[in-house]
Amino acid sequence: MTRRTMLALGAGLAAVPISSRADTGDNAMDTTGQNAIGQNAADQSFALTRPVHVGAAHLVVSDLDGVRQFYQTMLGLKVLEQGMSGTVLGAGERPLLTLTTRADTRRAPRNAAGLFHTAFLLPDRAELGHWLAHAVHQGVRLDGASDHLVSEAIYLSDPEGNGIEVYRDRSPDEWDFHADGTVEMATLALDLQGLYDQASKTAWGGMTDRSAIGHMHLQVGNIPEADRFYEGVLGLKKMASYPGASFFGAGTYHHHIAANIWNSRGATARDGAMTGLSGYSLTFNDKAALDTALATLESLEIPVTRTAEGHTLKDPWGIGLTLGAAA
Predict the structure, then answer these.
(1) Tens-place pLDDT, residues 163-190
(2) In what side-by-side order are the strands of the sheet with 151-157?
(3) Are 282 and 120 in contact (CB under 8 A)?
(4) Under DSSP, is residue 9 helix (H, G, I), strand (E, B) or coil?
């Protein structure tokens, strides 16, 4: 198969709606710092300048070395810390992904709550194209590719089936917002061949230090409960809805967290031995937003533990979550 044929097949996957591919009130956080927060951080992606953004993710895996090698080779992450039972990978000096293993690890079923995909945000379209050219040369197997109006995204999976999105955002000036503050999103075909043809074919040096986890997309048991937790408890705004999915963001970002039931309707809480998403972190640029979220958690008697990393808790499906203030 030629690279052109492979890319054409990948582009065909992009035309499948997200929901099909899965199975084969305004608050201060909506607008706080939309301009002020970002002005002194012009070198950062818009997603990271919002009152809240995703920090890092933690996956439990069976084959630590094999999965680590995949994220190094295919995603271009570098090892920041290494131990017998775990490794921390990042872009530049920014930790993005912790991989750990344990003796009693068992493969999570497809319909379990947990990870739909970890979404790695690249700083611009040139970087996305450069990564695609690298991935093609590495023999990538794509799960799909989509134009979501606000972004261009390419999907794949790691060796243990953990979903991955690699994407770039269009400028927020190009996004269409509705009167209620939500944003227009869609799932259209992405021209992978055009992206590849325009891409630099020089050696790719890995993810730059401007790369980040732009959002986490979760599998949950039901959407109303996800809405109550991520919007009602944590204070994010529902920015978009698809059948069976909600998308939550802070400071007008299209979404920092997404939750769907496409594979996991009715799923109950995870247990610690399952492979897949153990937890992730949210970083608060706005301390008032963090204080409000912590106060809401306390009022609802949701257990929160203070650690060196921040305030740890579990969402309604047993997915770990750490809330921390920006340094």
Answers:
(1) 999 999 999 999 999 999 999 999 999 9
(2) 188-189, 144-147, 151-157, 163-169, 114-122, 212-219, 257-260, 245-249, 237-242
(3) no
(4) helix
The whole-angstrom separation of Cα 156 and Cα 163 is 6
Q: Is residue 112 within 8 Å of 270, Cβ to Cβ? A: yes
Could you tell me where the DSSP H helices lie in 61-137? 64-73, 125-137
Amino acid letter for position 235:
G
DSSP state of 47: G
**Hey, how many other C-beta atoms are within 10 angstroms of the C-beta on 1?**
7
Question: Binning pLDDT at 50, 70 and 90, where does residue 43 land?
Answer: confident
pTM of whole model > 0.85? yes
Answer positive or negative: Cα dihedral of 59, 115, 34, 27: negative
Return the SS3 of 36.
helix
DSSP 8-state class, residue 32: T
Helix/strand/coil for 56: strand
Which pair of structure tokens corresponds to residue 133?
Answer: 């050219």
**Alpha-carbon gap, residue 242 to 260, rounded angstroms:** 9
How many Å apart are CA 204 and CA 257, to the nearest integer?
A: 29
C-alpha 18 chain-centroid distance: 15
Number of neighbouring beta carbons within 10 Å of residue 139:
9
